[in-house]
Amino acid sequence: MPEGAKHVSVLRVVIREDFSRTLAERLVLDVIKVLAELDTLPSKNGGKIGSLEEEENGKNEKAMKKKTAEEREREIVSHWRNVTKARKMEMDAANQASPSVTVVAN
């Protein structure tokens, strides 16, 4: 393992031919159980990661709100385009259904 990655823990899973669904379910349950145990342990970094994650979450929430507003605007514009397009098609269909009358004065 490279020197820069000595702090990284590795879980290696080898899957053989006779690996079945029940074995996969047991593996998933075991991993979930271990993750729950790891969540109860204190972090080795002294909380630095938590503060960074909070900052990133704050930035992401602002971006999500902005994105949501842009998406809403796009949805509204798209809706009204569809409404006007439908009205235009109805008017065109009505004009084609009834023959137009042209009055010519002599």
UniProtKB/TrEMBL annotation:
GO biological process, one term: L-glutamate catabolic process
Compositional bias ranges of the Basic and acidic residues kind: 57-74
Gene Ontology molecular function: any one: glutamate decarboxylase activity
GO cellular component terms given for this protein: cytosol
Gene3D superfamilies: 3.90.1150.160
InterPro entries listed in its UniProt record: Glutamate_decarboxylase (IPR010107)
Annotated region (Disordered), positions in chain: 45-74
Domain of life the protein comes from: Eukaryota
Family, similarity comment: Belongs to the group II decarboxylase family.
Protein name per UniProt: Glutamate decarboxylase-like
Naturally occurring in which organism (per UniProt): Momordica charantia
